[in-house]
Amino acid sequence: MEVGFSDDVLPQTVFPTVLGRPKHKGITGQKDVYIGTEAQNKKEILDLKYPIERSIITNWDDMENLWHYIFHEELNIEPEEYIMLLTESPLTPKVNREKIVQIMFEIFNTSGVFLGIQPHLFLY
């Protein structure tokens, strides 16, 4: 996953779209969820999940965790202060687009959302 700001030439960060939860609960110092490279590096002790399959979101709870991580850990922003530009596959079902917009407005309180089709945005 590539994340950043629209006026940057390159993404702020690039990381794998994976979340991991500990196989064994209750170990001191363990997080509830590991994301990206950190999850991959601890794959022996985690159950890994991929919230996006074939460019389509299939696990909404994990995707919400991923967006939270992006906003608060990677970008260090308050999402309500920004308009979000998210890319999507040309084959994204309408119901998924609606769900993305709903989460961005209702959970993250963003000021706006624009969904752009990946190949179209590549031209810019």
SSE map:
Layout: E1 2-3, E2 13-14, E3 19-22, E4 34-35, H1 37-41, E5 46-49, E6 52-53, E7 56-57, H2 60-74, E8 83-88, H3 94-106, E9 112-117, H4 118-122
Parallel strand pairs: 8-9
Antiparallel strand pairs: 1-2, 3-4, 3-5, 6-7
Mean pLDDT: 93
Per CATH, the class reads Alpha Beta
Strand content: 15-25%
Oligomer classification = single chain
Q: What do we call the CATH topology?
A: Nucleotidyltransferase, domain 5
> How many helices in DSSP terms?
4
Descriptive notes:
By secondary structure, the chain is of the alpha+beta class. The chain has a single domain (2-7, 17-117), classed as ATPase, nucleotide binding domain (Nucleotidyltransferase, domain 5, 2-Layer Sandwich). The chain is 31% helix and 24% strand. It has four helices and nine strands; from the N terminus they run ββββαβββαβαβα. The chain has helices at residues 37-41, 60-74, 94-106, 118-122, and strands at 2-3, 13-14, 19-22, 34-35, 46-49, 52-53, 56-57, 83-88, 112-117. The strands form four sheets. It has a three-stranded antiparallel beta sheet. The longest helix is centred in the middle third of the chain and has 15 residues, at 60-74. The protein is globular. It starts with a strand and ends with a helix. The mean pLDDT is 93.
Summarize the structure in short.
The protein is an alpha+beta fold and 124 residues long. Helix content is 31%, strand content 24%.
Properties at a glance:
124 residues; two-stranded antiparallel ribbon; 31% helix; 4 helices; globular; alpha+beta; Nucleotidyltransferase, domain 5; ATPase_NBD
